[in-house]
Backbone:
């Protein structure tokens, strides 16, 4: 890698941080991502839906670790039952509802499970924030990656595929 590089804006799915916090099998992969961020090659973020995914202790206590890990929070579409008052969530024009309907229809045709509402909100938040790559281990999201790419030009990858593509 050269001294001059473009910083890649990576949004992490909640399952990636949960892997780190629970010290599970893929913790080494998460550590690689954090190391790349430390070197300045990656700008890491999560969406506000991490609050929804980690409502209880001990994981909810770990949310305060994110600044020390170099991970910032970006908003998601404002949604009752998911958004927290005072969060970075934002009102949208409703076009994401159309995208959600299109993707869910395409997944039904393929006989595939649709991502959960919070998963969709993470992708939409990633898109709104104009970030480069969304990383996840969620199978439903990875199976729908081509649909999100076609509809929103969003790239969804597993951390393993991202690291291979990155050249590490």
Residues:
């Amino acid at each position: 890698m050269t001294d001059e590089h473009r910083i890649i804006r990576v949004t992490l799915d909640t399952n990636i941080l949960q892997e780190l916090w629970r010290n599970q099998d893929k913790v080494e992969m998460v550590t690689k991502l954090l190391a790349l961020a430390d070197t300045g090659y990656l700008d890491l973020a999560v969406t506000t839906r991490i609050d929804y995914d980690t409502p209880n202790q001990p994981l909810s206590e770990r949310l305060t670790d994110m600044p020390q890990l170099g991970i910032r929070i970006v908003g998601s579409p404002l949604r009752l039952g998911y958004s927290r008052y005072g969060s970075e969530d934002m009102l949208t024009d409703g076009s994401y509802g159309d995208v959600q309907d299109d993707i869910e229809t395409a997944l039904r045709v393929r006989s595939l499970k649709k991502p959960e509402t919070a998963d969709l909100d993470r992708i939409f938040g990633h898109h709104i924030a104009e970030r480069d790559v969304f990383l996840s281990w969620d199978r439903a999201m990875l199976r729908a990656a081509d649909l999100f790419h076609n509809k929103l030009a969003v790239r969804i990858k597993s951390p393993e595929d991202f690291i291979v593509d990155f050249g590490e």
User: Anything to note?
Assistant: Strands lie at 8-12, 42-47, 71-74, 133-135, 155-157. The first strand starts at residue 8 and ends at 12.
